[in-house]
Amino acid sequence: MPTSEPSSTPDRAGAWTIPLLCAGIALIACCLIIPAADENRRLTYEREKLRLDLEQIQKQVAVNKDFLQRVSGDPNLLERLAQRQMKLVREGTRVLELPDQDRRQEISPYLLVTLPPPAALVPYKPVGGVFSDLCRQPRPQLVMLGAGLLLVAVGMVLGTDASR
Length: 164
What we know:
Strand content: under 5%
Structural class: mainly alpha
Radius of gyration: 37 Å
Order of helices and strands: HHHH
Number of helices: 4
Largest sheet: none
């Protein structure tokens, strides 16, 4: 009577199960995680850029507010603005030469409200190499997702026991 004993030699096909499953899951994870991480980095870059712009605007608002307070309280500044706007020059006025140049020179009223723009950020550049570039592009990403699913399926098929 033949007995159905398990074979004494282990099935070698089962040895590929775990590596194929792991490789397939890793490939699928890379195709999903790399674009998401890149989008997070890009959003962080844009947030930093917006923060710098907001600081610039707040400084500009403070300078404009200071200028308006000066105009409302300083009759000389108000007169100079009116003369400049109407392109009038008082009769008998001329440029006064000062011997000491270290003194604070009077600034044009319009320069009081102009601030230089903030320093430009370095252009955004995604991190990674060739593989991460492939994960970001739609067609290669689709191919790699299919390959990952195929690896998972092959690993599961190779892992089944044929004697059952």
